[in-house]
From TrEMBL:
The keyword Oxidoreductase applies. Residues 481-492 have a biased composition (Gly residues). Signal peptide: none annotated. The keyword Oxidoreductase applies. The lineage of its organism: Bacteria, Thermotogati, Deinococcota, Deinococci, Deinococcales. This is Bifunctional aldehyde dehydrogenase/enoyl-CoA hydratase. Residues 544-645 form the MaoC-like domain. Residues 465-492 are annotated as: Disordered. Keywords: Oxidoreductase.
């Protein structure tokens, strides 16, 4: 993509179902050559109207189940991947190399897939999420309680930083969408043109319900003045801005949940046990250099402070000098360039100002002006990697308080693990920290010492060098956030991020009513018994509460002896008369696993039918012993149903039915309970793709 002075982009806002653009506004220039790239403005946007529109439109999203939202998210990810090259072309204008852009673009799209998979795997196919265990509130079991998570009926206002215009949006949008909340995205102006391009494609896809995603480019204006109690606000950016927004009158006065992920002075610690010839030494040097130069150091998780054993400072400095000498600087569109520009000349000047302040307590040990491979030194926002050394890190303040948000890191010598831990804590809270050591005792001491002041910790060594994702890479499955200066918030972390967009309510009722509400069987609820064996019913025919009470079986000594011989389990409580009398049961008892096997023989329907396989067994508890002469029977009850999507190559639609199994003795006393998962055939529905053998529709 080539842009000239005559054709700057004009990214628009998408609010209340319409695109809103202005011919005039702030002119943005590209980070590489300083040429006009976009004109941006939010002038004329009705912020109150946009929020009201999102709240009203959110009803359509809330009517969808978690699984329905997950399918949409997965389809959206595939749709965006097909258009990724257009995003890469725009990303070079922000100063990002192809490698940097991959993290932003495909990493962001990958978050959609990750949340789609997690929701399908771990959440029910419902509009609500039963949370935690059932609480029995009365002695007789007629009064019980359960927590439910339901979508908040507001808008998720998402204020993002300039450094990841795609990932920063999608990593917030994905959990909000799964949680049933519409998003209003406010990207940083510097790179909003890339965010806008992705939003245009999302809207054009027609995959998401109208109102699920709105966009405000330009300045936020009075946006936060109009947030209400059901809304949430998520912010990524500087710690200073987070502190201001946190006390906004509307946020405080209306108790609007506010989640902040702020920049922090992240540290990496090279272990005392590491020697210069160890693989861990080279790994540390490469990791610091990579974190300094990736995205030109413009990452909230980048290594700003490198804690190095005092006797290794010189060796680490030389190692970094050699590693950074390999970094080529210039136009990120070129294949031979490893580091591009900062996002703007203004950002470069802010970094330079911070560098000057840092030099009051530290000295520059690595710097220089590399030959530029494309780009413009004056009009572009280039800055060479710079390493400082602070020789008094325990008393200095600047390295622990001032962040140069660019390709800058400071070496901090230490003499003991206690000092290293203390140095990391002087940053007053970090998003990410790393420890490079293969000494497990050393790693344990550092992790436990640093854990309270970090959101994420990585232990790196030769054993995970090939697979680890690096110090500065947040993953959808793991927490992204941190205490103190890092904002005190949390994003990602798997489905925990979905919880931010939901309200937790305690529901108290009788078991039958609670079963009706949650569509998950509650012990003590009414059951439905049918002349048709439940294993003769298809997935679609089975209903929650369908139940079977089996015939009785008396346990004999032969049962126990034969089971011991078959399995090789000759534990004394089962086969040793004298030992068993001296044990806790006072008699020989049946094997617990014999009871499970015997119960299966009671409730299984042996002929071929809709039940295809045993899918698993969960929550097993042995409650009372069963001795020789005791009689058992089993009640099998449908607890819940989970529809499974067809995988590529599969032609037989199925679902998983979870059964509650209760084994009782002749006195009606519960002796064992567990959940059985069975794979059951179901009818094809509109969500199933056509089998590969069938022709796809035109």
């Amino acid at each position: 993509m080539t842009l000239t002075h005559a054709d700057p982009l004009r990214p628009a806002s998408y609010v209340s179902g319409h695109w809103h653009a202005n011919p005039d506004g702030q002119t943005l220039v590209d980070a590489v050559y300083g040429r006009p790239v976009a004109v941006i403005s939010s002038e004329g946007v009705d912020f109150a109207g946009a929020l009201a529109y999102g709240r009203a439109s959110g009803a359509a999203l809330r009517r969808m189940t978690f699984h329905e939202r997950a399918r949409v998210l997965r389809a959206l990810g595939a749709y965006l991947l097909e258009r990724k090259e257009a995003y890469y072309a725009l990303s070079t204008l922000t100063g990002a190399t192809r490698r940097d852009s991959w993290v932003d673009i495909e990493g962001g799209i990958g978050t959609l897939f990750s949340y789609a998979s997690a929701a399908r795997r771990e959440l029910p196919d419902e509009r609500f999420w039963p949370d935690g265990r059932l609480e029995r509130l009365g002695r007789e079991g007629t009064f019980v309680g359960r927590h439910l998570l339901v979508p908040r009926e507001g808008v998720a206002v998402q204020i993002n930083a300039f450094n990841f215009p795609v990932w920063g949006m999608l990593e917030k949008f994905a959990p909000a969408f799964i949680g049933g909340m519409p998003s209003l995205v406010k990207p940083a102006p510097q790179t909003a043109y890339l965010t806008e391009r992705v939003v245009r494609d999302i809207v054009a896809s027609g995959l998401i319900p109208e109102g699920s995603l709105q966009l405000v480019t330009g300045e936020p204006g009075s946006l936060l003045d109009h947030v209400e109690e059901q809304d949430v606000v998520a912010f990524t950016g500087s710690a200073a801005t987070a502190a201001k927004l946190r006390v906004h009158p509307a946020i405080v006065g209306r108790s609007v949940p506010f989640n902040a992920e702020a920049d922090s002075l992240n540290a990496s610690v090279l272990g005392l046990s590491v020697k210069p010839e160890d693989p861990e030494f080279a790994l540390f040097v490469r990791e610091v250099a990579r974190e300094m130069t990736g995205k030109a150091g413009q990452k909230c998780t980048a290594i700003r402070r490198a804690m190095v054993p005092s006797h290794l400072v010189e060796a680490v400095t030389e190692g970094l000098r050699r590693e950074l000498a390999k970094v080529t600087l210039g136009d990120p569109a070129r294949d031979d360039v490893r580091m591009g520009a900062l996002v703007s000349v203004e950002q470069r000047e802010r970094v330079r100002e911070t560098l000057e302040k840092l030099q009051q307590e530290a000295r520059v040990v690595i710097s220089g002006e590399a030959t530029l491979l494309g780009g413009d030194r004056e009009k572009g926002a280039f800055l060479d990697p710079t390493v400082l050394l602070c020789e008094t890190p325990l008393t200095a303040r600047g390295p622990h308080e001032l962040e140069a948000f660019g390709p800058v890191a400071t070496l901090l010598p230490y003499d003991s693990l206690e000092d290293a831990i203390h140095l990391t804590k002087l940053g007053r809270g970090s998003l990410a920290g790393s420890i490079v050591s293969r000494d497990r005792a050393e790693a344990t001491e550092l992790v436990l010492g640093m854990a309270s002041s970090h959101g994420r910790l990585l232990v790196l060594n030769r054993d995970n060098a090939k697979e680890n994702t690096g110090h500065g890479s947040p993953l959808p499955q793991l927490n992204h956030g941190g205490p103190g200066r890092a904002g005190g918030g949390s994003e990602l972390g798997g489905l925990s991020a979905v919880r931010h967009h939901m309200n937790r309510v305690a529901v108290q009722a009788d078991p039958t009513t609670l079963t009706s509400i949650t569509r998950e069987f509650v012990p003590g609820a009414d059951v439905q018994e049918d002349v048709v064996h439940p294993f003769r019913k298809s997935f679609d025919e089975i209903q929650v509460g369908d139940s079977l009470l089996t015939h009785r079986r008396t346990v004999t000594e032969a049962d126990i002896v034969n089971f011991a011989g078959l399995t090789g389990d000759h534990f004394y409580a089962h086969v040793d008369e004298i030992g068993a009398k001296e044990g806790i049961f006072g008699k020989r008892v049946a094997h617990g696993y014999f009871l499970i096997s015997a119960a299966a023989g009671q409730f299984v329907s042996p002929a071929p039918g809709p039940v295809l396989a045993n899918y698993g067994l969960e929550n097993l508890r042995f409650i009372e012993p069963v001795g020789i002469g005791d009689t058992i029977r089993t009640r099998l009850t449908c607890k819940r149903k989970i529809r499974k999507d067809l995988r590529p190559g599969e032609t037989r639609p199925t679902g998983v039915v979870e059964w509650r199994s209760e084994i009782t003795n002749q006195d009606g006393v519960l002796v064992a309970t567990y959940d059985i998962l069975t794979l059951v055939e179901r009818a094809r529905d509109g969500f199933d793709p056509q089998p590969e053998t069938e022709a796809a529709p035109a």
